[in-house]
Write a structure and sequence with these properties.
196 residues; mainly alpha; Hypothetical Protein Ta1238, Chain: A; 5 helices; disordered C terminus; corrinoid adenosyltransferase activity; CblAdoTrfase-like_sf
């Protein structure tokens, strides 16, 4: 199999249901999802798997990589009758995992700086790229039909990356570095107990 086809030499690419320009907002959206996926893969190579709880995180991140592929495929779909892959259950799963990580990490009151353990820092990059992907999908949805689960998934995923980044630092013995000019912006946020 050849990696190059020369079919894109004039600035177009194939999507499900036709061809579009390579700078089309649809291509920008699923391309940014792919970029986020690459940072998730990098974070997995940086996890300290000698910490037992991070083995579970690695499994979660692998699942997310598959779901990001599903999301990218759904965003590349211009055909109304072509089935979508990403399901609402994935959004619910992210919410459940976030609740668990929030319950297991120190209470957050102020904005924090990205960093700490290598995998945590990389997942903060994945978080910001995911936010950019979400913005691109919002722009796409203004002009074309999309699979709306993708938008909800990306919104929750960026929050998940924040929560799991803090968890990785916590179990790695790294403290959050608070933004020194931050007010207490998270006061009064409810926390889910592991017993509920």
């Amino acid at each position: 199999m050849r990696l190059y086809t020369k079919s894109g030499d004039k600035g177009q690419t194939s999507v499900i249901g036709g061809r579009v320009d390579k700078d089309d907002i649809r291509v920008e959206a699923y391309g940014t999802v792919d970029e986020a996926n690459s940072f998730v893969g990098k974070a997995r190579t940086e996890l300290n798997l000698s910490i037992d709880s991070l083995q579970q995180v690695d499994q979660e991140l692998e699942r997310i990589q598959h779901e990001l592929f599903d999301c990218g495929g759904d965003l590349a779909n211009k055909k109304v009758d072509h089935p979508y892959k990403l399901e609402e259950t994935s959004v619910n799963w992210l919410e459940d995992r976030m609740d668990d990580y929030i319950a297991e990490t120190p209470e957050l009151k102020r904005f924090i700086l990205p960093g700490g353990a290598p995998a945590s820092g990389t997942l903060h990059i994945a978080r910001t790229v995911t936010r950019r992907a979400e913005r691109n999908v919002v722009s796409l949805a203004k002009v074309e039909d999309i699979h709306d689960v993708c938008l909800r998934y990306l919104n929750r995923l960026s929050d998940y990356f924040f929560a799991v980044s803090r968890y990785i630092n916590f179990v790695s013995g790294e403290k959050d570095v608070e933004y020194i000019r931050s007010a207490e912006v998270f006061k009064g946020r409810p926390r889910k107990s592991k017993d509920t």
